[in-house]
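So, can you check?
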Amino acid sequence: MKVFLSLLALPALLLPVACFLYIIVQAFPALDWELIVGSSASSGAAGNLFGDAANAGHGLWSQISGSLLMMLLACLLAAPIALSIALFHALWASPRQQRMLITLLQVLQGIPPIVYGLCGLVLLIHLLHWGISLAAGGVILAVVILPLLSSNAIHALQRIPIEQTESAKALGLSVGAMITRVWFPVAWSGMLTGLLLAMARALSETAPILFTATVFSGVLWPDSIFSPVTSLQTHIFYLAQEGSNAHVIDVAWASAAVLLGLVICFSLSARLLRRYEESS
């Protein structure tokens, strides 16, 4: 039975590794440092192909910075709300409200991200007239990662030993003092793990920001939060449509490798932090 179950699990282990190696092999012809920081030889070719002199020679730096800016804005918006939801769940919600809250978070987490993107297009772009902007993309990504952040924060608080909470109440600590002096010193690593996973999730989303935040080119750095940005996710999407140009496809694979590297960095950081939490 152990051998049979191992054989069933083998594709789940081998397929991600095979996909990762395939992306690296495909990206190798165009993947170099000059592609990231910019050079007229490697990074300008894709921009020149699409008639964009503004981005030619600047590499992928503007796309990387745009992706990271939206990720950071989304986390800044979603993290306080997720923490508030977790504290409400732990302190004031009745058992019935707790079950309803968990169910609602599970339903929200199961909604396809493209639906959030379409809702953002209607509400933020057309009704509120924000335009295609960093702010719109950050808000939509915050909504996307909010269920994940909230669930991780709830689980982090649930892992706090009940004895510590009861001792804090017996000593007469206020709710605020109990949260800051008892809960956070124990739960901070679990919450930070969830934040790193949410960052990886925000970096991997394409459909929501495709409708609300990004343009293909012409932007090196947003002038304000209501200016559009470029991102690695949508950059890959647009380049992949130019199937007749071999070099542009190589640049698309290289961009995918860079994006994959960023996602893996945040995911591995979360994994290492979780192992530290389990061992401590």
